[in-house]
Amino acid sequence: MGVRVERTDLAGIGFRDDVITKDGARIGVLTYREGGREVAIFSEDDPDAIAARVTVTAAEADALSELLGQAKTLDFLNGVGGGVAGVYTEHLTLAADSRFIDHELGLTKARTKTGVSIVAIVRGTDVIPSPEPSEVLLSDDILVAVGTRKGLDALAAILSDSRA
C-alpha cells in the first residue's frame, strides 16, 4: 500500500498536508499564507485537534525536509550489501585532521588497499553517488563504503591517518 497524504485548505489561513501512518496517526505540516509553518501531531480521537506542535521557519522546514530525504537515501545505501553474508555497509566520517582533507579520493587507494568500494559521499545535505577518484574530500564528509568487515576496518584506519 502507498503512503496516504491528505491536503486540507484552511480558508483564509493556508493549508495543511497530513501523512496518515499505517497505524492511523496523523502527522501534518500547516503552511500559513503569511509564510509560517508548523509541524503537528494530531489527536487520535480528533483528527482536527493538535496534540503537539513545533513552529518552524521556512529555512528550518527546508532543513527538516532535506534531513528526511538524506535519511531515506542513507537507508537505501545501507541496503546495498543487505542480505549478502560477509558484506557490510558503513558510514565513515572523515576526521577534521585527516591527511586526505582537500585531496582527491583516489589518493586513499581505498579499493586497492582494502577491497572496499566507496559508493557515495554525503556532504552536508548533498549525496554524491558513485564518486570519481578525482572527487576532492572535505572535512566532515561521510563516506558510504561497502565491503568485508576486515576491509572496512582497514579503510577506517587509513582515513583516520592524521596530517600530523
Word description of this protein:
With 164 residues, the chain is an alpha+beta fold. It has two domains: 4-56; 81-159, Regulator of K+ conductance, C-terminal domain (Alpha-Beta Plaits), CATH 3.30.70.1450. Helices cover 23% and strands 35% of the residues. It contains three helices and nine strands. The protein has helices at residues 58-78, 110-114, 149-159, and strands spanning 4-10, 14-20, 26-32, 37-42, 50-56, 88-93, 117-123, 126-129, 142-147. The strands form two sheets. Strands 1-2-3-4-5 form a five-stranded antiparallel beta sheet. The protein is elongated and about 60 Å long. It starts with a strand and ends in a 5-residue tail after the last helix. The mean pLDDT is 83.
- Rg over CA atoms, rounded to whole Å, is 21 Å
Q: CATH superfamily of the largest domain, please? A: Regulator of K+ conductance, C-terminal domain
**What is the overall pLDDT average?**
83
What summary fits the major beta sheet? Answer: 5 strands, antiparallel
Percent helix range? 10-25%
GO molecular function, one term: monoatomic cation transmembrane transporter activity
Domain RCK C-terminal: 77-161
GO biological process, one term: potassium ion transport
